[in-house]
Design goal:
three-stranded antiparallel sheet, flat, 41 helices, mainly alpha, single chain, five-stranded parallel sheet
Length: 851
């Protein structure tokens, strides 16, 4: 879980810099320390470990005596012990001082450490709570020498998925993973405990090789001890405050201040047990974090206390909302990305719970209103929630069947009919049943025949198995700029990869659109397809931020799908994975966007699929498999992901399968999906047949934005290294700069696999020159060539250094002999098939699993 954090600490320590590791209780600080110590001890570093214990804080020298120092009788003062410890650190060799839970050390041990640190330049790695108010003695130990600061953030969806698989021996399904993430707020210790105790209590059961929930809750008595330990440091006022908040649920801050003292709330927020967020009305709301703490209090047997607290907070919920005016900033990509990166510090679990509670409240209120008056307007109001939020199939079916047409608005009638058709697809009755529902509706409402025809076309091309022909668009669409017709036209043009026509179709505000969010979806994705990636990203990220603020799950999912494509195309993997993780944390959505949810699961699994890790551990395994290989938009069909996840590393086999898939996508009329598949496959393993298809698609679609990438790919495939050198020399940065780097690495790996030594060395040189000219902080997506004969950790470590250091320099850095380095390089060359140190370095440089 913490490979990148461990590596960062090792890098700092190698430069003689100490590190302060901070995070919440159970955040993984001790685990990180153990991994650091294990790595350093293997390389010959002497590690001196001191640990603070809550029960030993008042026992003098308790922490320092754990080192087992040889102190002579009668010489046990602070300076005497410091002399002995300093002499240990002065012995030949490399030394590291490690202090776990520095805030729990007794005063005398702190004094010894301060004296030792003043006498020695040995770096120190220490852990402490994230928001701890350090004493003077603690600061005296921390603030000596150079120190780096490392924050351990909560786990995101994919990390939780992997951790559950490690703990339980098999992955969990999407809803279970989302629930555990939500309840734990990404706290590693709680993720493990919730998963373990839920399985122990039979709240998780194995179905189809995945763990799934057998009940509506994961709370069980076996979690009580874990929660008691987590809350052990709270004061009585803070403990009572949590109990009150558990009764109130998510509440506005001004409401909480009426029943909880401000100092208690500030204390809880400082300790990380309280999350404060902006609500959709512009005010501030607060909720318990991690949410499993609320389950602990709600399950409490102290009913008498609960009655007293309920009496205390009676009537508080009627307080009026507090509105705060909002300010908007200028639209630009850097601002949008900065906002997304800042959002990573927020709590996915709290946001998800906030959206779920908001949807549940709206659904209940609107459903009761519909029960009182079963009008089309009231029915459409309830059904609109199900287009994003999870579906209550029974309620949705009742509304579709019992809603009256009396005095109904045309738009509401149409929305109810389209929802009933979508519900038929959701319940596995298929597109044919959906079309029959709409045809019957058209027979009963002939005045809506045009709109129903548009809806039938939308369902056929988006969910059916038929070919999308050029004749599918009625002539009337050509001038249509309002209603459902223009939206369907824009969507079909997008499927065909005609972005200019799609943008023209959805021009206008669309305030009265029958299908919400379809217009901005087509517009933003058409910008992406047209090569205007930055514009698409800005629009999608702004739309997503607005949807999150409005607690609009439908808008969050649709905008996130578009933004994820833009981020992945530019190589922003961390931002894309966080964005998709925040969607997965909400659990499976309503019936209209569930295909986009599955598509993002596959997109998130793409990088995982190119590594040596088992594909079954990828979160892409949570996506539904009962779908076609091709789909209307990238990722909706499973073919591209399956092609990459089950790559045999044989270029000829990959070429054949990729060509077959792309032709199948073109035959179905889904040209945009074919274009994205061809682009990705060309960059991963460039081949003649796929490149020819890519050129054909671009030519027929009238897209010229990829001309530099295509020219470079042609030179690579034809083996014209002289032309390739000229093209790279005169290359001007464009939207494909990241893809060109991926293409050159993919070509290098192909030549290595095929045993073409001369071509591999030439490609390694070209890739190296391009990387120097256009350095990228982003990891290059590429196939791992070492699935069959994996290199050892030491061989990979040596190979990475072999690109710019001599054997002697590598040996000095790793603490091994030059002869050992030579042996490692020889083994790596033999296993990988590389023919030189430079090609080995380029080959290995991006073959490690994502950190």
């Amino acid at each position: 879980m913490f490979d990148s954090e461990v590596q960062r600490i090792l890098d700092f320590v190698a430069r003689g810099i100490g590190v302060r590791v901070v995070g919440g209780p159970g955040g993984g600080k001790t685990t990180v320390l153990r991994n650091v110590m294990s790595n350093l001890e293997k390389s010959g570093v002497s590690v001196h470990f001191v640990s603070g214990l809550r029960t030993h804080r008042s026992i003098p020298y308790s922490a320092i005596k754990g080192l087992g120092l040889d102190v002579r009788p009668g010489r046990s003062s602070v300076l005497d012990i410091a002399d002995v410890f300093s002499s240990q650190l002065a012995k030949p060799g490399k030394h590291l001082l490690v202090v776990d839970d520095l805030h729990l050390l007794d005063s005398e041990s702190l004094a010894v450490l301060e004296a030792v640190r003043r006498r020695s330049d040995c770096p120190m790695v220490a852990t402490a709570p994230e928001t701890w108010a350090f004493s003077r003695g603690q600061l005296a130990v921390l603030n000596l020498g150079r120190e780096a600061h490392l924050q351990l953030d909560p786990l995101h969806y994919e990390q939780v998925h992997l951790l559950i698989a490690q703990v339980l021996g098999a992955p969990a399904d999407a809803d279970t993973t989302a629930r555990i993430l939500t309840k734990s707020a990404g706290n590693p210790r709680l993720v493990v405990r919730i998963a373990e105790t839920a399985a122990l209590s039979n709240l998780l059961v194995m179905e189809d090789k995945q763990w799934t929930m057998s009940a509506e809750t994961l709370w069980n008595e076996h979690l009580r001890g874990t929660l008691e330990a987590l809350l052990a440091e709270l004061s009585a006022d803070e403990f009572t405050a949590l109990h009150i908040m558990a009764i109130l649920g998510t509440a506005r801050v001004d409401v909480l201040l009426k029943v909880i003292h401000q100092d208690a709330l500030e204390g809880l927020e400082r300790r990380g047990f309280l999350s404060v967020l902006a609500d959709h009305q512009g005010g501030s709301i607060a909720a318990i974090s991690p949410p499993v703490i609320a389950d602990y209090f709600r399950d409490s047997k102290k009913l008498r206390d609960s009655r007293l607290l309920r009496t205390k907070i009676a009537g508080v919920l009627e307080a009026a909302p507090h509105a705060v005016p909002e300010k908007r900033t200028a639209d630009c990509l850097s601002r949008a990305l900065s906002a997304l990166r800042l959002e990573k510090a927020d709590d996915d679990a709290i946001t998800s719970r906030q959206i779920h509670e908001y949807n549940a409240d709206r659904e209940q209120i609107r459903f009761e209103r519909w029960q009182a008056n079963k009008s089309a307007a009231n029915g459409a109001a309830v059904l609109r929630i199900y287009w994003g939020a999870p579906v209550d199939v029974e309620r949705a079916g009742s509304i579709c069947a019992e809603t009256t047409n009396f005095d109904a608005e045309t738009q509401d009638l149409l929305f109810v009919a389209v929802t009933e058709a979508m519900l038929a697809i959701h319940t596995r009755r298929g597109p044919r049943a959906a079309v029959e529902i709409l045809q019957k509706f058209a027979g009963d409402n002939p005045q809506l025949l045009t709109e129903v025809s548009d809806a039938i076309l939308f369902i056929n091309v988006s969910h059916g198995r038929g070919r999308l022909d050029t004749g599918d668009l009625p002539a009337a669409f050509e001038s249509s700029k309002t209603g459902l017709g223009c939206l369907v036209q824009g969507l079909l043009e997008l499927y065909r990869c005609r972005p200019a026509a799609a943008l023209d179709a959805v021009e206008g505000a669309g305030d009265d659109d029958a299908i919400p969010h379809l217009r901005p979806f087509v517009r933003s994705f058409a910008l992406f397809a047209a090569g205007r990636v930055e514009e698409s990203l800005v629009m999608a990220l702004d739309w997503r931020a607005e949807s999150r603020k409005n607690l609009d799950q439908f808008g969050v999912i649709t905008s996130s799908y578009v933004a994820a494509h833009g981020l992945l195309y530019r190589g922003h993997f961390e931002e894309a994975e966080y964005l998709m993780s925040s969607v997965f944390a909400m659990g499976r959505p309503g019936f209209v966007v569930d295909s986009l949810y599955d598509a993002m699961l596959r997109l998130a699994g793409l990088r995982h699929a190119t590594t040596a890790l088992l594909p079954t551990l990828s979160i892409a395994a949570q996506a539904r498999t009962d779908v076609a290989d091709v789909g209307p938009l990238p990722g909706i069909g499973k073919g591209a992901y399956e092609l990459i996840a089950h790559n045999s590393t044989q270029p000829s086999t990959f070429d054949r399968k990729a060509t077959k898939l792309i032709k199948q996508q073109l035959k179905s009329g889904y040209v945009l999906e074919a274009l994205m598949t061809a682009l990705l496959c060309t960059c991963l393993i460039p081949g003649r047949q796929v490149l020819d298809l890519l050129q054909k698609i671009l030519q027929e679609s009238g897209l010229t934005v990829h001309h530099q990438l295509v020219a470079i790919a042609c030179a690579v495939v034809e083996g014209d290294h002289k032309l390739l050198g000229l093209l790279l020399k005169h290359y001007e940065p464009d939207i494909d700069t990241y893809q060109v780097g991926m293409l050159l690495r993919g070509a290098l790996k192909r030549h290595v696999i095929e045993g073409d030594a001369a071509a591999a060395d030439a490609m390694a040189q070209a890739s190296s020159v391009f990387a120097v000219r256009f350095p990228s902080a982003n990891e290059q997506l590429s196939f791992n060539s070492f699935r069959a004969t994996p290199l050892t950790e030491r061989e990979i470590e040596v190979a990475i250094l072999a690109g710019h250091l001599t054997n002697v320099e590598i040996g000095e850095q790793l603490g091994i002999s030059a002869r050992t380095v030579e042996n490692h390089i020889s083994n790596a060359l033999r296993k990988s098939g590389a023919t030189s140190r430079n090609s080995l370095f380029m080959l290995v440089g991006n073959s490690l699993p994502p950190r």
